[in-house]
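Q: Give me the 3D complex with iron/sulfur cluster.
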Amino acid sequence: MGTYLGLLQRRHADTLIQRLRGAGYHVLGPVVQDGTIRYAPVDGFDRLPAGWVEQQAPGHYRLQKRDSPRCFSWTLGPQGLKPLTFAPEEPLWTVERRHGHGLEFHSHFPETKKQAVLGVRACDLAALALQDRHFLGGPHPDERYRRRREGLLLIAVHCHRAAPTCFCASTGDGPRAHHGFDLALSELDEGYLVEAGSEAGHALAAALPLIPPQPGQQARAEREIRHAGEAQERRLPGRDLMTALRARRDAAHWEEIGRRCLACGNCTSVCPTCFCHCHQERPHPTEDRSSHYRQWDSCFTSGHSYIHGIVIREDTALRYRQWLSHKLGEWHAQYGRSGCVGCGRCITWCPVGIDLTHETAALLAAPPDDSEACDA
Amino acid sequence: MEPRKLRVAVHKFASCDGCQLAFLNAGEALLALSERVDFVHFAELGPMDPEAEVDVAFIEGSVCTREEGDRLQRIRARSRFLISLGACATAGGLQALRNLADGEAWLNEIYPRREYLDALATATPLSEEVTVDLAIWGCPVNGEQVFQVIAELERGLTPRLPDDPLCLECKRRGAVCTLVTQGRPCLGPVTRGGCGALCPRFGRDCYGCFGPSEHPNTEALGRRFEGLGLIDAAIARRFLFINSAAPAFREAGLRWGGRPACP
Ligand code: SF4
Ligand code: SF4
Ligand code: SF4
Ligand code: SF4
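A: Here is the predicted complex, encoded as structure tokens.
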């Protein structure tokens, strides 16, 4: 249970956005756009999706409007924070021929922008922590990621409603946000219970017209959040599946998935923890310079396993095996936890509705391989 | 000594001319490009020398007459690097729908005097007649890809265009999935990227004009279309629309009992 600093009444909610703008932040908040909910610039709560909820199912997403003042009853849109920190495509450098003076390289770096994101979910914060670890944790931190990340101020919203595709309770990453936010909100009809998670968050809260919560309000919020976790229909069969998956490298079920999977990469693109990228050189058609780009890649492309003339993972079964065994298995060796935060996006946004929780259960239902693959 | 400029020809076969516009629409960039390469034959631009020896020949259109078949052989013999430009040249285009019907019967029915026509009963992609060094897909092609290819050839590189499924590009561009949010029969999962997810960015399902991706699972996607409520003939038409002579799409169209789009 969180430490609530007070209640921001609904009629004063706009002060939050005003304070953020006053402090020099661009404010991104959820808006209804193109049949879904996405983060876009907002200047007031009237832009937020009051009453909107989404229906999610494997390969299916539809919005519905209800009669409710709540702006955060929807659960997730197609993307979390990933596009804000790990750009889908960006130039890294340009090389130019200086006639008679060799080559000249220029690096491209994004400017750090002060951006506040309103309505971030627990699973996406957990995913951000993993991406921080990946991009910033090693001896060679990614400068482009760092610059984008540094400017972010995060306002979480605990989930009071989970989608049928959510399983954050089983991965331990939601529905309540525990870390990684500056400010966190619990939404009730009458307003928002506010918690702070950082110095910046405390400073922001101090500038809001908070009133002490009424008796029962906190308990109501806690009950709703707990219920959002308990109501989840999906789960993974365990937190650490590395050994179990290693022992099923030759399971026949991979082939069965390979017949259904399109190798389209939607799952990896919407997954808030996936970080694979590829590089491209783009010569300028009419000038003596060429730019080098990085863009999101996926373990479902042939390029991902292309090494010196051969594609190692030629068929889809092997590509799916790579995705699932890395995400739920090998991540433990690499990052000390699973790469899945239970957001369910890969289930919803898979055009053919492949559900990793079902596939994992089916794989684990099969006996382990008798080969020695298990100790690899 | 100034290095010799790349000699380029742009030829036209049976097609709508839309792909050649990729050059003309570039405007000033085309002027800048013609400083670096020699367009020795390009009727729409002005220069005419169809029999010239060239480094790079772009051919728009499919082979629909005997004369085109002969001309294709002559171009191949005089070109170091031959590129099929667009859906017609690469996979037959719309006109290849007649390959799935009795093309000869159509010609007899439609034209009063069949013998005045030098028209074949089929429309054939270039690669079925000669070696094609590179295919640029699309109906029409993406001008940026065309310029990219010339830029690479001009620098002595072997151009390579992406063949990953369009969905990846769709997600990178931040488009919202039309299949998942609207139940539309989007061909993006089996179509190669390159267009920048043009259709999904306008809320429309991809109809596959860039041809099959590297690893197209048309069977699973077709079954998904059945689940969306499409009848077999509608599924067949999706696959056979623009690139019916591309083997993966042709096979998929025939699997769902495909016949040409209209009688
Ligand atoms: S694997 Fe799927 S459910 Fe897990 S974090 Fe990625 S998108 Fe979400
Ligand atoms: S699991 Fe689904 S989203 Fe992922 S590659 Fe396969 S078909 Fe595409
Ligand atoms: S709209 Fe089409 S191309 Fe885009 S993700 Fe969906 S299925 Fe793929
Ligand atoms: S989305 Fe599909 S149909 Fe539309 S331009 Fe791209 S490849 Fe062609």
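A quick observation: Chain B touches chain A through 42 residues (CB under 8 Å).
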